[in-house]
Specification:
about 600 residues; alpha+beta; DNA Primase, Chain A; Dna Topoisomerase Vi A Subunit, Chain: A, domain 2; 4 domains; five-stranded antiparallel beta sheet; 28 helices; 16 strands; binds zinc ion
């Protein structure tokens, strides 16, 4: 969903970044800013180097160089997408989201919010029941046997759905919630005009979005007669098991910090890893990986390590997932645990070091599967063709062309065939495979729309331009000066865009210069660059230093431009110049030597 810039600013201005970040790290006032320990898990520090400016509504870490405005913080720290961050902040401030202002979708929104709050109620009621149980109860004994500490149980808000057939029914009645709403949330079901609890005698695992809402539940039966052993919420407006990942609300920041996500098959595996201190992990809920899962993972890291049980079911799961992972531009590795262990058992029995050793041995899923398929390979022609049939859908699905080339080369070597033969053989296998792998047109479109928000790319900016950007954020006079000097006409495109954004902003909000840095941060692809140079420029000793820097930077940019032009002319001169061109060339060289005085 696209929000217009005014709306985004309104949402941002409704919050104070100091209050918001204070709930993640303790901030102390120091002069005009607040300082605290950096909250980002990738940066563990003992002395505070994380600064938050209340005037400017931005943060910057002098240690790890992370920085940006409030929206950046929600994206980087809490792992939200841009639209999610805006929606979260709008909801918190009670601002109506424009696209949702029409009555029909507002109604839908209200219904969803109601379901979220009922789910939260269910989660809390079940958690209370679990706490009430005596240590001798079979449930507590089970938790102990699985090695789950009380801290983990309460951190993940596990609960106990009692043996009663109407525990949840009564809880809903007590809170004046209508049964059909409870039914939409998947908490109760109707039979012969009566309502019954959907979950009974089960250890409950709330499934929570990385934005904090309770989406649904997984329940594990503890007795042999409980079938199925794992029961998930039915499909509801909030919950589809192929779209959600367990644990992401806790692990998102660790996944970003490690730049790798470990995918396991169930919540018990998840909790075992998390408790052992391996926290960059998510669990699928008894399904194969879907395109929706992959898109969700994409936002946190491209490096996906899938842990499969080391049996034939694990291999089949890998075969199903590989093309989907590669078609979403992820870089999949796998780890098959030895001796048919599942991850939970493996950690319990062999300990964390052995487990980490197994993780170290993980390899690229494509190469691993290839090895598996070629176990008894004897270079017969029919075997080569069989392998090509297996790899064709995978190679056609790969989004990353460089990776595809590498895999093709590897395949030629291993099969002992010529590249040209392989390409032809793959081509023959093309038609029947592509349709199965690619997501449907409609699905594709929606993701493209979601990522459409175009940001200014700061990559190509020169050092001089970055320093000028810092000065612009220090004082509005520099924006006017840049305009006078017509620097945008000779600068890089990215810099010209930043200048025009700043000008535009000041025309609309002349009294709000303080918030300019926050605004520019929200318009560029790397907000930390903005905050870094803003901090630099505010540390200059006096106006004279700043002015000198301004002149130097503008001169440098100008000299670069002249050099470029001179080169161009020089080239032309070599190819027979006209007298006019000769004169032009002389002029450029003159200018090159007498530019702006300090
Ligand atoms: Zn930091």
């Amino acid at each position: 969903m696209a929000f217009d810039q005014d709306f985004i600013e309104r949402v941002r201005n409704a919050h104070n970044i100091v209050d918001y970040i204070s709930s993640f790290t303790q901030l102390k006032r120091s002069g005009s800013t607040y300082m605290g320990l950096c909250p980002f898990p990738s940066h563990r520090e003992k002395t505070p180097s994380f600064s938050v400016s209340e005037d400017k509504q931005i943060y910057h870490c002098f240690g790890c160089q992370k920085g940006g405005n409030l929206i950046t913080f929600l994206i980087e720290y809490q792992g939200m997408s841009f639209p999610q961050a805006i929606e979260t902040l709008a909801n918190k401030a009670g601002i109506l989201i424009p696209e949702k202002a029409n009555p029909e979708s507002a109604k839908k929104r209200d219904e969803k919010n109601q379901l979220y709050s009922i789910n939260a109620l269910a989660k809390d009621s079940w958690a209370k029941e679990l706490k009430k149980l005596p240590p001798t109860s079979p449930v507590k004994a089970y938790l102990k046997k699985r090695g789950l500490s009380e801290e983990i149980v309460s951190e993940f808000e596990l609960g106990w759905a009692t043996d009663s057939w109407n525990f949840m029914v009564q809880a809903l009645v007590k809170n004046k919630i209508q049964m059909n709403v409870g039914e939409s949330a998947g908490l109760v079901r109707r039979k012969d005009a009566r309502f019954y609890d959907y979950f009974r005698s089960r250890l409950m695992f709330p499934i929570i979005a990385n934005t904090g809402e309770v989406l649904g539940f997984g329940g594990r039966g503890l007795r042999d007669e409980d079938t199925p052993k794992y029961l998930n919420s039915p499909d509801t407006p909030l919950f589809h098991k192929g779209k959600v990942l367990f644990g992401l609300n806790h692990s998102a920041k660790h996944i970003r910090a490690e730049d790798q996500v470990i995918v396991v098959e169930g919540y018990m595996d998840f909790l075992a890893l998390y408790q052992a201190g391996i926290k960059n992990v998510v669990a699928v809920l008894g399904t194969a990986l879907t395109h929706d899962h992959c898109r969700l993972l994409q936002r946190f890291s491209k490096n996906v390590l899938v842990l499969f049980d080391g049996d034939s079911a694990g291999i089949r799961a890998a075969e199903r997932s590989l093309a989907i992972l590669l078609s979403n531009d992820l870089l999949p590795k796998w780890c098959l645990l030895p001796d048919d262990f599942d991850p939970d058992e493996y950690i319990q029995e062999r300990g964390k070091p052995a487990f980490q050793e197994a993780l170290q041995k993980s390899e690229e899923m494509f190469l691993g599967l290839l090895t598996f398929w070629m176990k008894n390979f004897s270079y017969q022609n029919y075997e080569k063709i069989q392998i090509v049939q297996k790899v064709a859908p995978i190679l056609h699905a790969i989004k990353n062309q460089a990776l595809r080339e590498l895999y093709l080369n590897e395949l030629c070597l291993r099969l002992r065939v010529e590249n040209s033969w392989l390409l032809k053989a793959l081509d023959q296998n093309k038609q029947q495979t592509t349709a199965e792998i690619n997501p449907t047109g409609a699905e594709k479109q929606s993701t493209e729309q979601a990522t459409k928000t175009e940001k200014v790319n700061l990559e190509g900016l020169s050092r001089a331009e970055l320093d000028l950007m810092g000065l612009m954020l220090k004082s509005a006079e520099y924006i006017a000066k840049l305009d006078q000097e017509k620097v945008s006409e000779i600068s890089s495109q990215g810099f010209a865009k930043v200048v025009s954004l700043a000008k535009n902003y000041l025309e609309h909000f002349p009294d709000d210069f303080n918030k300019l840095a926050g605004y520019i941060s929200s318009m560029v692809d790397t907000p930390s660059i903005v905050t870094h140079y803003e901090k630099r420029s505010s540390s200059y000793a006096d106006a004279k230093t700043a002015h000198k820097l301004f002149v130097d930077c503008v001169n440098w940019i100008r000299s670069q431009k002249y050099k470029e032009k001179a080169k161009e002319m020089h080239y032309k001169l070599q190819q027979n110049a006209t007298p006019q061109e000769l004169e032009q060339f002389m002029n450029i060289n003159k200018k090159k030597h007498g530019i702006l005085g300090t």
